[in-house]
Amino acid sequence: MSARILVVDDVIPNVKILEAKLSVEYYDVITAYNGADALKIALEQQPDLILLDVMMPQMDGFEVCQRLKADNKTAHIPVVMVTALSEAADRIQGLESGADDFLTKPVDDMALFARVKSLLRLKMMMDEFRLREETSSEMGVISMSDRKEEAIQRARILVIDDNEYSVRMMKEIYAETYDITLEPNMEEAQVLLRGGDYDLAVISLDSSNYDPLRLCSKIRSLEETRQLPILTLVDESDKDKLIKGMEIGVNDYVMRPIDANELIVRTRTQILRKQYQDRLRHNFHRSMELAVTDSLTGLYNRRYMSNHLDAILQRAKLDYKPVCVMILDIDFFKRVNDTHGHHVGDEVIKEFSLRIGASVRGIDLACRYGGEEFVVVMPDTNLSVASTVSERLRRQISEVPFSVSKGTLELNLTCSIGVTVSGESESSDSLLKRADKALYKAKRDGRNRVVVAPSNVEVFERPHGIAAR
C-alpha cells in the first residue's frame, strides 16, 4: 500500500532516520522541520499520514495537531505523535489534541509500520465515503451534516476478557458512560457481536482460554462486524501478538498495566470515529436513495424507472412473459394550482401517489414520471389484468374526494390512464410511447377514462419444446 507521509521534527537526524525507514517500504515521504511549515504542507499537499514530533520550538506538536484537526481540510488526516515523552499524561494530552496514536522514541519498527498500515487502511475507506458525501452535496442530493462531535453517552461496548481483575476495572471505568457487556467466552462473544450492534469491541490479547487473534480475524471477516472498531489490551510480553493483530485489523491498543485515563481517551476516540464513519455511510446510502426517488412522493423517479424498465423487459424476454405499463395523469391539475396554490397541489400529488401505491402489487414499479404524470410497470401481467387494475384505480380516484389543507378542503378529481403491453423485442422507449399515446387518447376523448393500446403480439407464445418456468 503506497501513500504520502509527512514527517515533522525539528531534529534533522530524526527526520532522516524516519524518512529512510519509510522510503524502504516504498512510501512517498515529505518533510517539515517546524509546526508552521507542517501546517502549510499538510494543507497544500494533503498527505495520507503525519508523523509529528511533540517537542518543537515555537509551536509544539500538541498545538500543531489541534490546528490540523480544527481545519476541515486537514481534519481527516491521521496524526501519529512521535516523541521521547513516555508518561501516560503526555499520551493522553496527545490523544486529546486529536492524535490518532502516540509512539515513544526510539520507535520500534514493527510497531511503527503496523500502525502506519492500520491508519492508512482506515483513511482510504473514510476518504472514499467523504468523497461520495461531498459529491452528493455538490449535486444537491444531500446537505452536508455538521462535523461536530456526536453524543456518545450510551454507546455500546463488548468486553471480551477472562481476567477478573481487568474486567472489574473496566466495568468501573465504563459503567457511568457506556452500556457495557462483559463476556469471557469467545464463542458466546461471537454470537453477541453478530446481533448486538456494538460501537466497540475491547479484546484482551493475553487470554489462556481462547485465541484472541482468531477472534479479531473473525470480526474482520464477517459482514455484520467488519466495520466494528477493535481495541486490544496488551501485555509488554505480547508485542508479537500486537503486531499481528494490527495487521489483521485491530484499530488501537492499551498496554498493561491499564491507565484508566488513557483507556477512556482511546475508547472515546474509537467510538467517535465509528460514529463519523457511520454517518458518512448513512449519508452515502441516503444519497443513493434520494438519487433514484422523487422527493415529494417517495416513489421512484423517471431516471430509475427508465433503467429498471430495460432490465424488466430483458428478463421478460427470457421468461416469455408480458410486461404491462400504465401512464396516469391527473385531469385539470393546473386548475388546482391556479385556484388553491402549489402547496395544495403538492398535497394532491402526495395523496395521488399513496393511492397508486395502495392499488398495485409489491412486484409492480410505481414512479413519478414528471409533474402530475405517473407510471406503473407491471411485470408478468397480461393486458386484461392491467386493464382491470387501471379501471379500479380510476374509480378510486374519481369516487373518493381528496382531503387537503388539514381536512378543511375537499377536492373532487379524476385521472386519465393509458395502458399497453409489451410485445416481442420491445424496447422501453416504444412501450412508453405507446402507453403515452393511449393516455393522450383518453385525454382527447373526454378524460376520466382508461384507454388500452394492445401490442402487435398481446400475449407471448412460448416456442415449442421450451417448458414453462
SSE blueprint and pairings:
Layout: E1 4-8, H1 12-24, E2 28-32, H2 35-45, E3 49-53, H3 61-70, E4 79-83, H4 88-96, E5 101-104, H5 109-138, E6 156-160, H6 164-174, E7 179-182, H7 186-195, E8 200-204, H8 212-221, E9 230-234, H9 239-248, E10 252-255, H10 260-292, H11 302-319, E11 323-330, H12 333-340, H13 342-359, E12 365-370, E13 373-379, H14 383-399, E14 402-404, E15 409-411, E16 415-421, H15 428-444, E17 450-453
Parallel strand pairs: 1-2, 1-3, 3-4, 4-5, 6-7, 6-8, 8-9, 9-10, 16-17
Antiparallel strand pairs: 11-13, 11-16, 12-13, 14-15
Helix pairs in contact: 2-3, 4-10, 5-9, 5-10, 8-9, 12-13, 13-14
Short description:
The chain has 469 residues and is an alpha/beta fold. It has helices spanning 12-24, 35-45, 61-70, 88-96, 109-138, 164-174, 186-195, 212-221, 239-248, 260-292, 302-319, 333-340, 342-359, 383-399, 428-444; strands spanning 4-8, 28-32, 49-53, 79-83, 101-104, 156-160, 179-182, 200-204, 230-234, 252-255, 323-330, 365-370, 373-379, 402-404, 409-411, 415-421, 450-453.
